UniProtKB/TrEMBL annotation:
Residues 12-224 form the Metallo-beta-lactamase domain. It comes from Isoptericola sediminis. InterPro entries: MBL_Glyoxalase_II, Metallo-B-lactamas, RibonucZ/Hydroxyglut_hydro. One of its GO terms (molecular function) is metal ion binding. This is MBL fold metallo-hydrolase.
Length: 242
């Protein structure tokens, strides 16, 4: 499968369009959209039109609003559900409230304020957030996500949030695949654990038992920032536990 990245203008979220290898009878290809950050809907729709794609689902690596802001728009345009791990489903109904901890946590308040400012700079108001019409949570430590001709392997990777998920994408023509790592793993870094719902011990276990078990040949498209490879991060990322 091919992965096309559309970078959101708000918080630089990497929105990924994963395209099936198989060609449908109508000459089009199925796809799914992962992490519909604010300001990605029109560009994703244009990519879909230009490449004759058929969206079959919108997925989220986790429930933070910078990864789900345009999910409702894309779900409505393409009449598809939003899918994410059940442990993060509660965040979809109250995205800003689930970032804050009653306004007392300095880190959470700072993130929420910065996000609201970034949305404002892009001409969006936090009150404009919409909940997708259909949300289909999935459960389990490993789940096969089948959406038309697209099949992804979802691996529960808690720590940054309770429901953080890695999506493993098979490579095309037998080539190396890609892991969409959300805010679990970045190039040279890992996800923060100072926001509501985060858990330092869970993150350490995820990094040690899940990330270190990934195939080193996999490419990595993180939730923000440049792409990397599992091999590079295993060798040089200073935040990965031994």
């Amino acid at each position: 499968m091919d992965v096309h990245v559309v970078v959101a203008p708000v918080f630089g979220t990497n929105c990924c369009v994963v395209v099936a290898d198989a060609v449908r009878d109508d000459g089009r290809r199925d796809c799914v959209v992962v992490d519909a950050g604010a300001g990605t809907a029109d560009r994703v729709a244009q990519l879909v039109a230009d490449r004759s794609l058929v969206p079959r689902a919108v997925l989220a690596t986790h429930g933070h609003v910078d990864h789900t802001w345009d999910a409702a728009e894309l779900c409505a345009r393409f009449d598809v559900p939003l899918r994410l791990h059940a442990a993060d489903a509660y965040r979809i109904d109250d995205p800003f409230g689930t970032i804050l901890s009653g306004g007392d946590d300095a880190a959470a308040t700072s993130v929420s304020s910065a996000l609201a400012q970034a949305l404002g700079d892009f001409g969006r108001d936090p009150r404009d957030y919409r909940v997708p019409a259909t949300v289909e949570p999935f459960e389990g430590s490993t789940t096969e996500i089948v959406a038309g001709d697209v099949t992804l392997h979802a691996v529960h990777a808690p720590g940054h949030t309770e429901g953080s998920t890695l999506y493993l994408v098979d490579g095309s023509d037998g080539g190396p695949g890609v892991v969409l790592s959300g805010d679990v793993l970045f190039a040279g870094g890992v996800g923060r654990t100072d926001l509501p719902g985060a858990d330092v011990d869970a993150m350490l276990a995820t990094l040690r038992d899940v990330v270190r078990a990934l195939d080193p040949a996999l490419g990595v498209v993180p939730g923000h920032g440049p792409t990397t490879t599992v091999r590079r991060e295993l060798a040089a990322n200073p935040f990965l536990p031994a």
